[in-house]
Amino acid sequence: MALTDVNPYPDLHCMWPSEKVRPFSLYGCQQKCFSSSQSSNLKEVLDELVPQEQKRVSEFKKQYSDTVIGNVTVDMIYGGMRGIKGMVYETSVLDAQEGIRFRGKTIEDCQKELPKAKGGEQPLPEGLFWLLVTSKVPTQQQVDWVTKEWNNRAHIPQHVVTMLNNFPNQLHPMSQFSAAITVLNLESKFAKAYADNVHKSKYWEYIYEDAMDLIAKLPTVAAIIYRNLYRDGTAVGAIDSKKDWSWNFSSMLGYDNKQFIELLRLYLTIHSDHEGGNVSAHASHLVGSALSDPYLSFAAAMNGLAGPLHGLANQEVLIWITKLIEKIGENPTDDQVKQYILDTLKAGVVVPGFGHAVLRKTDPRYTCQRDFALKHLPNDNMFKIVSQLYKIVPPILLEGGKVKNPWPNVDAHSGVLLQHHGMKEMNYYTVLFGVSRALGVLAQMIWSRALGFPLERPKSMSTDGLMQLVKKQPTQQTQEKAKAA
Ligand SMILES: CC(C)(COP(=O)(O)OP(=O)(O)OC[C@H]1O[C@@H](n2cnc3c(N)ncnc32)[C@H](O)[C@@H]1OP(=O)(O)O)[C@@H](O)C(=O)NCCC(=O)NCCS
Questions:
Q1: For 386-395, how does the pLDDT look when each residue is reduced to its tens digit (9 = 90+)?
Q2: All domains in the chain, ordered by first residue
Q3: Ligand 1 cavity residues, CB under 6 Å
Q4: pTM value?
Q5: Which of 364, 419, 418, 416 has the alpha carbon at shortest distance from 389?
Q6: Which residue stretches, if any, does this entry annotate as coiled coil (predicted)?
């Protein structure tokens, strides 16, 4: 049996995409992968989990170290390494048909099971972070503990505020965000501990501290950028220690509408993680493997997220829809929308918000945002256009014959929800995505250091080298001919 066909986490149903796969324990017993600690202190829970997981991974590696798990073709190498299983990433797994699972949980599961704010319906991102780190659904008490920690760690040094205040207005919010995160690394406890020759078995503890500090500080940094660019530099105000992370972020941005705060809780939960191979997660994983501290590693992730084929697509979608409205009005006919899409493709431009490198179905992150819109803003004109695009774009892309996934992704919907609630500054949207992405990549970084992952260093080839290599090997066609003969 190939290793890829078994579920190593049978009793938790975690990290495994399909319930249809028969559970099978690698060790032949129904052992829990993680502890049952009820402490509300995340660090205490990790103190218990880390040695258990280190042991489990080490035994697994010993037993299966030379098991072959896949083939690599020339197409894969030239094709952005699609499909090559080349890294371990624990916090979430993306299934091409079913979408993202956070430690085995779908978005719907998270909406049902994770603790919510009083009177709220959407999960608190604090709970999602706990789930990503521990593989357990947290209690309300545990989530409250995380909120309190983040509120206590939110302060940012004056020199970072001064730097942000001095940036020119033309500098893209993502460039400002990334620069501020890099500069914040003066606060890194990991960098200080490393300089003091801390033993490598302790690395993960300092990464944990930095992860908690950085996540706590990001909303303040992001809100200062927003206020400087779009609200005449007005003050973000103080953190309310009794309120959750999203409430405080919303308040610092200047939004007190309950529905917007709920939207933010959903938004910050669903954009957090999308397994390890996407540009932002992979960038932070790679840079972190050099033992660059979490601030430097996360800044690298943000520079990747700022690309139009990745996170910036949510800005691109809204710019594209705005131009559509300018050109043909707020209530376009299907034929007019179709022509607009065809004109886009004819100009050699991608239709933003559609397609995905891994997914082959409608992104469930799109679907849950659509559900939110159907409930709260069914008559919004832009939402109606988004719904029209959902109907019209996929058949056109399919007809073109080259797109592997014609369905909408997360970015096709998020901007429309934000603009409905008054946040109309499209250039800013990727910063919100970035704040959320910290939850996933930093949760993973704790485990990357706890499990002692080494410096990442894949082998690259030159085209000449590849040509030499393939000459020595029969192609699939010649193998098939040989078989037939
Ligand atoms: C996400 C994305 C980069 C994935 O790229 P990918 O894995 O190379 O996708 P595919 O294998 O389906 O691409 C095959 C071809 O279809 C094209 N294609 C893919 N999505 C397309 C889209 N939305 N509009 C037009 N063409 C598209 C690709 O550019 C590629 O063209 P090429 O052969 O001329 O280079 C791509 O779908 C895209 O550019 N989408 C729009 C941007 C976006 O929404 N990004 C956010 C992703 S979450």
A1: 999 999 999 9
A2: 87-456 (1.10.580.10)
A3: 309, 313, 345, 350-357, 402-405, 409-411
A4: 0.91
A5: 416
A6: none
